[in-house]
Amino acid sequence: MIDSEPEEDFVTAQPPVTNVIQFPGVRPNRKLTDAWKARVEAGNQKTTTKLKLPSPIDVMDEVMRQRSMPAMSWPAAWPNLARRMRTYPGDMVGVVGSQGGGKTSFAIQVAVANAGDGIPTVWMAGELDAAQITTRIVANMHGVHAMAVRDHWPRERIEYALAHVSDMFHFVDRFRDREKQLDAIRRAVSYTWELYRIPPLLVVDHIGKLAGLSGDLRVGTLEALELLRELTVEMQCYTMPLSQGSRGSQAMLTGKTTPESATEAIGLAAESKSYEDDCANVIALALFKVDNAMRLDAHGMVGKARHTGEEGTEGMAFSKPGGQWFELDYLPATPGEVTAEVAKAKKDKHRAGAPPELPQARADLNAARSGNADAARRIALLEAIRRHGAMGMETKHVKDVRGVGRGTAPQQALQDLERQGLIERINNRWRATPREE
User: Fold this and answer.
1) pLDDT value of position 208
2) In what order do the strands lie in the sheet with 429-432?
3) What is the DSSP letter of 86?
4) Cβ atoms within 10 Å of 309's Cβ, excluding its own
5) Which of 112, 197, 349, 373 has its CA 20 to 30 A from that of 392?
6) From CA 320, how far away is CA 293, in angstroms rounded?
7) Which of 294, 328, 362 is the last residue in one of the domains?
8) Looking at the domain assignment, is residue 72 inside a domain?
């Protein structure tokens, strides 16, 4: 019989536990722990399966090891997405979008950001080949059309641009056999771990190409995502599989209809159940295409955020030159909302002028939403400064206030509040002025 008497020196040294259900007779007991390990070892000697059956304390070394690994980097211009989609080694980030919806450019921008932080990328080029991705990398970094790089830039200029990221970016050879393809991916990730000693980013562009190596495309997608998940966990890398949305989701991915919530983003994936099960984070890129426009509005719908729980939609914009993505402080109007606004204006019998055309209606809606975002930014800043009291807030901490945005927007908000007499600057600090009665 196992002695269940508590170890008094351990029990008395610990604070009382209040957040677990207490059961009579359950106490820390080293003899019970040793007996469990002995029982597992005895069972393993009788079978060919070697079970570990660890306790939570047994995996603390792994917890500490994971803590030492960096989170995946995101572009500095995407602070809200970075907050929502915090990604750790062993996580998959599913990126969903329409055909030509900017998925590859999105992944390239993430890869370049990781290269800047010393995290290498392993890229399986399934849709575009390595040469096409290379020209897009240069175009993205310089904000120019990939066609211009391909057709006009001299070799020396391209090589000079690539010198900043080339040693952090490697392509996986392409194979028609799925097992050979997965083996090539595994070896590339393994080599990267061996040389860089840091979790690499694995991009699969796109999952349909890997799934297409199976006889049944639907079954192949399910199997490919599950195999990628197992590889990601085993190799402790970050994996970003890109997926074209299902045919039924194209209206949402182009903004003709608006989803009720960002969680519907998972349903936009071609195989939504697999993305829901296998990915830690899922984002659907809804790109609103307009004929001949060089800059397009978009929504980034975070449908799953395992670590933060901050599902939701971020306003974004996409620049065709360079395929560059930008994060906005407001949600731009969707084509469906713009059309509805024009229809509403046409029905307004009391309207003095002619109803606006689609471009003007879009600009008016976005201007109003941008103005609301500016007002919310000023409110958030003023409340944060007031919380700091008479000592005030250091200027360097302004960027840490949630909702203040990026770039010149926080500085503009500070100047507006100062002109209104609501805050004042003393040396390198901002503090609220006494409010008038």
Assistant:
1) 80
2) 393-394, 429-432, 423-426
3) -
4) 8
5) 373
6) 8
7) 328
8) no
Question: Cα separations (Å) of 418 from 41, 229, 425?
Answer: 70, 51, 8
User: Which residue shows structure tokens 């040389």?
Assistant: 195
Q: Looking at the DSSP assignment, which residues form a beta bridge with residue 426?
A: 429
Q: Cα angle vertex 91, ends 87, 94, to 5°?
A: 85
Instruction: Count the domains in the chain.
Output: 3
Name the maximum alpha-carbon separation found in the chain: 92
**259 within some domain:** yes
Predicted local distance difference test score (pLDDT) of residue 305: 94
Residue ending a domain, among 289, 309, 328, is 328
Weakest-pLDDT range from 9-13, 146-150, 177-181, 351-355: 9-13
Do 150 and 44 belong together in one domain? no
Based on the fold, state whether residues 60 and 151 are members of the same structural domain: no
Nearest of 110, 313, 81, 288 to residue 205 by alpha carbon: 110
pLDDT in tens, 102-129: 999 999 999 999 999 999 999 999 889 9
For the stretch 258-272, pLDDT in tens is 776 777 767 766 566
In a domain, 333, yes or no: no
Whether the full predicted model's pTM is greater than 0.90, yes or no, is no
Is residue 437 one of the residues assigned to a domain?
no
Same domain, 224 and 364: no
Q: What is the C-alpha to C-alpha distance for residues 403 and 379, in angstroms, rounded to an integer?
A: 10
Distance between CA atoms of residues 326 and 127, nearest Å: 24
Q: Which of 431, 377, 384 lies closest to 407 in space, CA to CA?
A: 377
pLDDT at 7: 43
- Tell me which residue range forms the domain holding 19: 8-67
Q: Are residues 183 and 96 in the same domain?
A: yes
| 319 and 357 inside one domain | no
Residue with tokens 């192949």: 220
CB 223 within 8 A of CB 184: no
Q: Specify whether the CB–CB gap between 234 and 87 falls below 8 A.
A: no
Q: Which residues contact 203 (CB under 8 A, 6 or more apart)?
A: 107, 111, 121, 122, 123, 124, 239, 240, 242
Alpha carbons within 13 angstroms on the beta-carbon side of residue 197 total 1
Say if residue 196 is in the same domain as residue 270: yes
| DSSP β-bridge partners for residue 288 | 297
Q: 309 and 388, same structural domain?
A: no
How does pLDDT run across 365-422, given as a tens digit for each residue?
Answer: 999 998 988 888 888 888 888 988 888 888 888 878 877 777 778 888 888 888 888 9
The residue type at 166: S
Residue 13 is encoded by which pair of tokens?
A: 């040294």
